[in-house]
Amino acid sequence: MAKVPFGVVNSEFASSRIGEGMPQIFSKNANGVARFVIWGSCAVLLIAAAIGVILPRSDLVTGVGEPVAQPVPFSHKHHVGQLGIDCRYCHNGVETSSSAGLPATEVCMTCHSQLFTNADMLAPVRASLASGTPIRWQRVNGLPDFVFFNHAIHVNKGVACETCHGEVDEMPLTRRAHTLSMEWCLGCHRNPERNLRPPQDVFLMHWQPPENIADIRRRLIGMLDIHPETMTDCYVCHR
Amino acid sequence: MSAIAEKGSGSGIDIAALRRRLANGRDMWRSLDEIAGTVEFRRFVEAEFPAIAEHLPAKPNRRTLLKLMGASFSLAGLAACSRAESIVPYVRQPEVLVPGKPVYYATTLSSDGFGVGVMVESHEGRPTKVEGNPDHPASRGATDAVMQAAVLTLFDPDRSRTPLKDGEPASYGDFLKDIAALVSRWTASQGQGGALLLDASTSPTLAAQVDVLRARYPKLNVYRHDPLARPTAGQASRALFGSTLTPVYHFDRAEVIFSLDADFLGEGPGRLAYARDFAARRRVRSPADWMSRLYVVETSPTITGATADHRLAVKPRDIEAVAAALRAKLGAQAEAPRSPVDPTWMTALSKDLVAAGRNALVIPGAHQSAFVYAIALAANAKLGALGNTVELIEPPDTLQVDGDLTTLCEAISDGVIDTAVVVGANPMHTAPAGLNAHKAFSSLQLLVHHGLYRDETAFLSHWHVPAAHELESWSDIRAYDGTASLVQPLIKPLYDGKTLHQLLAVLGGQFEIDALSLIRQHWSEINDEAWRKALRDGAIANSAAKPASVTAPPDLGGLKPAVQAGGRIDIRFVADPWLRDGRFANASWLQELPRPLTKIVWGNAALISPAMAERLKIENGNVINVAANGVSLDAPAWILPGHPDETVTLSFGFGRKVGSVAALSEGYDAFRLRDGTEWFATGAAVTPSTNDMRVITTQHHQAIEGRAIVRHASLDTFRQDPHFVRKDAPPSPTESLYPDWPYNQEAWAMAIDLSACIGCMACVSACQAENNIATVGPDECERGQEMHWLRVDRYYAGPLDAPDTFFQPVPCMHCEKAPCEVVCPVNATVHTHDGLNAQVYNRCIGTRYCSQNCPYKVRRFNFLDHQSFDKDEAGSEQGVHNPNVSVRSRGVMEKCTYCVQRISAKRIQAQIENRDIADGEVVTACQQACPTRAITFGDLNRKDANVVREKTAPQNYPLLEELNTRPRTTYLGRISNPNGELSKPGEAIDD
Amino acid sequence: MTEASASSPAVLRGRHDFPEISGRIGSIVLSGRLPRHFWTAFFLCFLLVLLLLYSITYLISVGVGGLGINMPVVWGTMISNFVWWIGIGHAGTLISAVLLLLRQPWRASINRFAEAMTLFAVAMAGLFPILHLGRPWFFYWLLPLPNVHMHWPQWRSPLVWDFAAISTYATVSLLFWYMGLLPDLAVLRDRARSRPAQLFYGILALGWRGSAFHWARYQVVYFLLAALATPLVVSVHSIVSLDFTFAITPGYHSTIFPPYFVAGALLSGFAMVLTIAIPLRWAFSVEDLITVRHMDNAAKLMIAAGMVVAYGYVSEAFFAWYSGEPYERAMMVQRAIGPYAPLFWTMLGLNCGLLQLLWFRRIRRNMPLLFAIAIAVNIGMWIERYIIVVTGPSRDYLPSAWGEQSLTWLDFGILFGSIGTFFALIFLFIRILPAITIFEVEELAEEEGKLR
Amino acid sequence: MSLYGLMAAFADPEALIDAARGMRERGYRRMDAFSPFPLEELDGILEIPKTRLPWAVLVGGITCAALVYALIWYSVEVDYPINVGGRPLHSWPPFVVIAFEAGILGAAFAGFLGVLVANGLPRYYHPVFNAESFTYARGGRFYLLIEATDPKYRKSVTKRQLTRLGAEIVEEIEA
Q: Does A203 lie in the same domain as A150?
């Protein structure tokens, strides 16, 4: 850096009349404005924090309760609620496999080759069987790839379909009943007792717990060999 | 972008021009890599695989191609891996299949033409993992490193997808039309001028089909080209016993074993069974236990030599002298010839052998001369071992051929042959140096090639037909002991490939027949029930060959030692342990799997002895020119301790540039120097040059630095002091500042028996297949960014020329006081209730502190985007992925999890059934693959568990126990059994 | 007048009056007439800023594999840059806080830019732990934020302590610096002629009017902040050193690290103060305000810190031997003769050897020479941090895992980019804020009786 | 428009101190002095009370440290207990480090915010700025303010007294 004779600047400054004016550069309102800005920023920060806490849990983000459009407007309300078909008729892997399984087209056609054989609504199903092209359903209850959920263990240990999937028998179009967030999963994994029911009842909808349910649940924990202290291990879900 | 790639980019591909260029020589065209940048390549990809094209950068580099390689572009389940938001059920669900549950099928994989039975795990119809078949004699539940990669080659995007006529895509129907013309021509001429060139195979159906073809076309000639052929067993047994026989060894009965250059643990169709028996005989857990003793004389370091109690390295030309000396010592010959081996050594060996009597075993190298082979057979006979430790059986390979590639080429040159059908073989790459196979094949009127890849031979042929992969095929094949094993498809052919049986049937005029009916026809004598059982078991019951009873003549049936050539330097050719003759060159798992002794990846080197390097004043990576048989090649030198002096080991399998992965690898093509199918060359010349070539290795430091890492002792020392592992080792701390954490349920733990570990790398390969471990490519390996969760460390001790070699598999130790966990700032690595050191990939932010603080350095980091985390972006490369293991994204740490997905699966199963997990129910991938059962895994809290038994052995020790990390993985110190009469050179075992 | 200044020679040279002091310092900012070469230098730094931006973009889009790191040496320049910058940051706080507590009035002319240097160095340092991450976009997982994943940081990790220490240090330094600026901002507010400048400095000055009542509280709290900053500054580099000490890697696991790191920080910090002050006082002709005595004192502190650092080197080696730990010993030997030996000996030469020249008063007062030594120490200290980071893991417990890392263009791009950004920020600071504390120099002039 | 007080400007600190002492002796209590740098002698003269801000700093520090420690304790013992490297859940030594840093942060904030609040800053409009002579532009003069609310305040008397005590300029300032 080259040296600059500072005196030039300095003398220029000395000759000027800088600073001999009115020092009051703000109006009387300035103090009020400053207070408003200070408290206002505090309020904005608080609101932002509140939004940050609430928004990720809201239906807006989690998609809970929002029916998903499907290639065939399949109604659980009709099939489960009105006809009373058992969950396992279509989701036949649920007791043995990690995946509950989606019914093959054939399964749909066991009934629909007899019933509503000409309904327009079912045209994609018939087309699927004819062409051998599977129906592309839209996923409703999705988990990230790094989460490994196993249906069989839950169903066998007395966690009902209803507990996670909600009252599907009242859903004309299937929608997500719970957030399926880690927080929500852990809610049960930390304290499974309050979501248990006798394993034979897991496929029932609108199950009414008997009077002595607390007692039953306590015994279930022992009978089913459930160890809540092991259920928050990371690898239970992440492998 | 590599230099190679730049050379090619900018100009479009013109198939005709390529063919013209190809006509000029064998290495004129390089690879997909060369053409990757061209407009045509893009257009091709876009047309065929729109999903991939979107992710293809404007100028794809090697990395992209490697990623695309991960699996197929267009696999069967492409529909199933579309947007994550949609789910696709079956239209008709197969009965056996429950989505989410794997299914296992027994089938057989071929290894140098012999069958090894496997169980293949299949998820929703997608084969993902190869396991050994416990009921199969050649597998006994184990696999080797190469077999693990079968699923990867199945999904290899470089596989040939469509028949090609003169290099242009054509339909199979057109092919059949052309073949129909050929069939009628041959029918008219009785096959005059026709030749069939087969790959190595022991398929009974194939042999029968060839017989049918011969009957139909009496003038048809059948040749076989097996570049890795080892025909001397037959020659020697013909000379000795008058019939062609092949030996089967019983190491479980052997007390003293002498290997004459036989790598029985690493090579040969029976290696897995042999390794199992060999290790079982060397299991020492208490001073009362007994173990066998192994002497090895070898011409190039092998894992068998590394396991030996006494090992000598000799020049290839000296092996015959060693064999003759043995014969002399055993008293069959009065006068001992000049032996390169110390006479006391020979005396001690022969005394030991004689003492063992019928429990002795002399094994000749299968690639050795008939003379050596015959001496070994005679020695066994003399010792009384024949019928006990050695049995001679009819060779499984019953196919009679009219000659090999050389005869075929001569016949073509003579104008006798004008049409050739090449099935499976790739003679344009594997032909010997002196043979101008290229010229001969170019002059053919019609050349039909059937193979998995559009390889060098396919480029020359008029018709190329894609072959079905083993996992897509119906076939049969015999194991080393003659057991007929069935090959059944796990998946419909992805690219409509045809099996070799279908092709041969087509040549016989059966255009429509499928492979299953051909196989079933051949085995029509067994009923349906037996057939179903055979399919379930993977092998046809009681089909093993019966041992022949023979008596050895007093002489060697006229076999003489070979005449020694001039020159001082010998060449020893070996097949690369993973790539074999180069057929697996496009499997990235195998390219990146360190070779057992050199730990070299993505290339090969000319192995030389330290003394030779000193004389030539060369270092690792310096280029040497090796000349023999009138040809020469440049290769980077690699100094291997324990290598015989004045010998260069060259390995086959590299130098191929066909296929995007193969093109990434470096190395030379040793076939360019080979004469015939010889495994040795004498009179070679080696000239050092000033150039360097890159040789990539994953272990840079070989010495153990006096640390108590691999603890070892001789059997005698062990008997005196069973707790030898405590001697001279740092004291183990017993106290900790921290209170002990209770593990009330399971407490998973592993024990690794270093005496049993033969360094075969099967565990590493199995781990890679099971856990979706990425391959990273040569550049990243060179930088030290490879990803194997489990590594097998190789240390040397003792003198440079005759060191002791130690292998030590190092997975995660799952320390109870894990140093890695306390330093993770985000709880991404924590302990579980059953004592696993869990790694939570989705929580990891990549501070890499855990790896810094891991004294075992077993953690691996995704430095770059090796496989895509995003299902959509990954496209179809997920084909080979284990669906139960997360695919890790860039920037995430990963490591051995004790196969936590397997633990979880078994726990869930046990909990559903409301019972405890049984001992041995959870088997880790490495444990399952291990041929010697060196790895034991189980629950420490079960007092009857195998792993507890192993850990109570006196030689059990934790690695770096002085750090008080309390590892759950421990080692059983290595025990060897040297002969007390021999002060072994470089004896480091007795201290 | 305090005792210290009474017993030692005067700090300022020549005689001054208040308008002159405030005018000379203030006009650098307000007149905006800076030497042409100021802008040339700024432009060069700005090019390096662009390099930093490019490098960061590359790093984040390609991944940390673009750096030279590998297995086993998974930490590299990002960590050594971090430690280096944090170290540089220490001198500023030391000069302003510790010398304030010790009532060393000579700090007056250099504390402002030393504090600014601290802030910018900490800002640069704060960048590196994030760039170091494999997935930098998740850096906030180190914070205990309410989230749906139920995540907590792992409080036992030194990296979390680091996060707490660095953010506290940056915040406290900023508060301390801003408090010190208040009276000077009032001066600038009053001097400013243009309305935007008046508003800018006026808003920042918070209506400071120099009331005696304010001064009384101000001084107490300013002093208290200094008292808080002093243990903080020691704790920060101690915690940074715990990143290493906490690990069981040979070469990391050493109890000497905390004091040795603090001393190293001071050494590099004073070197950076000199690196900035020597050209600054010359370019702006303020040699009478930032005098040779300042430089001399800084040089003395440098050699003092340097001796402690040298003691650290010696004790590290001694205890590696004395501990009898084979791993520590082997690592130490490898450090001296292994692949990183050239760097190791260069480091010793620069940080221990060359520094001994400062025993000579003539060299301490020879500005070009002092400047060169300061630069050499800066380089030496970077090498020291790099050696500490890489040699341990490259030669740790299992010889099979031994290996070295390399450096790529990206390592250098980010390092030089950060240096450029640091100086660019310093230039901006000089342009916008008074680089010398007006009120304290006035006070000093008053006390020294140097008023006309 | 009311009168805020009288502002007297002095050339040097000694003059200001003398003037302040003089005015105090004359019975003035509602005074303030303004200077470009702190003048400790004024504290006694103007009867500036000893500030209690150090207590605020102490309380801020301790509160913040305790809160953070409590948060850590809650997270490891109550909310999500995890076995990390076999260490006890409540590993206090490392937690103290974080609590210490948090304490420093809390103390610094308490001090900084405390001084602003106690001084009533920011206060952009203030009557003293209405004095034409009141400026720090030239390094600042030394000012003494006698507020109009002082019981002794008599405009002309006070002005005269100030001038007599050496004020260069004395001006009336509006509120």
A: yes
Range of the domain at C356: 3-143+161-448
Pair (A35, A79) in one structural domain? no
Both tokens assigned to B208:
């029968």
Residues D108 and D59 in one domain: yes
Average pLDDT over residues B700-708: 87
Q: Is B983 inside any structural domain?
A: no
Percent over 90 (pLDDT), chain B: 63
What pTM, to 2 d.p., does this model score?
Answer: 0.90
Closest CA to A161 of A94, A107, A96, A209: A94
Q: Each residue of C155-165: pLDDT tens digit?
A: 999 999 999 99
Number of structural domains in chain B: 5
Q: Does residue A230 sit in the same domain as residue A187?
A: yes
Residues from A contacting C (CB-CB < 8 Å) are 1-7, 9-10, 12-14, 18-19, 23, 25-26, 31, 52-53, 56-57, 179, 181-184, 186
pLDDT of residue B28: 31
Highest mean pLDDT among A112-116, B557-561, B858-862: B858-862
Domain hosting B264: range is: 246-393
Burial class from Cβ neighbours inside 10 Å (0-12, 13-18, 19+) for residue C416 reads middle
Q: In this structure, is residue A50 part of a structural domain?
A: yes
- Best CA proximity match to B48, nearest among B153, B161, B126, B155: B161
Q: What stretches in chain D show pLDDT beneath 70?
A: 1, 139-140
Say if strands B569-575 and B647-652 run parallel, antiparallel, or are unpaired: parallel
Lowest mean pLDDT among B766-770, B917-921, C91-95: C91-95
Measured CA to CA, the distance from residue A95 to residue A103 in angstroms comes to 15
Partners of B110 in beta bridges: B115
By Cβ distance, the residue of B738, B815, B820 closest to D87 is B738
**Partner-chain residue, chosen from C190, C199, C284, that has the shortest CB–CB distance to A19:** C190
ipTM of this complex:
0.91
- The rounded mean pLDDT for chain A is 85
Q: Which of B377, B393, B409 delimits the end of a domain?
A: B393
- Is the domain of B285 the same as that of B222? no
Give the total number of structural domains in chain D. Answer: 2
The helix or strand, by DSSP H or E, that contains position B477, with its residue range, turns out to be strand B475-478
Task: Give me the residues of A, 163-192, that contact B with CB < 8 A.
Answer: none
Three-state DSSP at C391 gives helix
Within 13 Å and on the Cβ side, how many CA atoms surround B818? 33
- Tell me what pLDDT residue D1 has: 54
- The rounded Cα C328 to chain-centroid distance in angstroms is 30
The answer on B257 and B204 residing in a single domain is no
Kindly state whether residues D36 and D72 are assigned to the same domain: no
Distance separating alpha carbons of residues B341 and B312, to the nearest angstrom: 8
Q: Per the domain annotation, does A89 fall within a domain?
A: yes
Please give the Cα distance from B778 to B791 (Å, whole number): 17
Lowest mean per-residue pLDDT among A86-100, B11-25, C203-217, C307-321: B11-25
Q: Evaluate whether residue B102 is within a structural domain.
A: no
Task: Give the residue-averaged pLDDT of A62-83.
Answer: 89
Whether residue A81 is found in the same domain as residue A126: no
> Are residues B224 and B278 both part of a single domain?
no
Q: Which residues of B touch C398 (CB under 8 A)?
A: 707, 709, 793, 810, 855-857, 959-960
DSSP category for residue B671: G
Which residues, listed in sequence order, are joined to residue B403 by a DSSP beta bridge? B223
Q: Return phi, psi of residue A61, to 5°.
A: -90, -40
Tens-digit pLDDT profile for residues B512-568 = 888 999 999 999 999 999 999 999 999 998 899 999 888 878 788 778 887 666 778
Range of the domain at A198: 74-102+140-236
Segments forming the whole domain that contains residue D130: 3-50+126-174
- How much is the pLDDT for B149? 93
Note whether A84 and A179 are same-domain residues.
yes
- Tell me the two tokens of residue C297: 């004192």
pLDDT at residue B987, rounded to an integer: 41
